[in-house]
Write a structure and sequence with these properties.
- The chain is α+β, with helices and mostly antiparallel strands.
- It has two helices and two strands.
- A two-stranded antiparallel ribbon has the order 1-2.
- The chain is elongated.
Amino acid sequence: LQGTEEVMKQIEEDLKALPGVRDLQTTIGADIQKKVDRGIVLVELVDVSQRKESQRDLMDRTRQILDKYK
């Protein structure tokens, strides 16, 4: 669990740096099997009128960021 927490904190820091991110919610072990080596990050964006990037662009950038955690 401690290792997962550390990785999730690193992921949060990476995602907070993306333009247009308003808030993040991270959950560990919330899958149906309650595996503590898995986590979920929900990302809330500012309104589209307040950012230059589309949701699709931010999703693509997020995937690139998360590649280093595979």
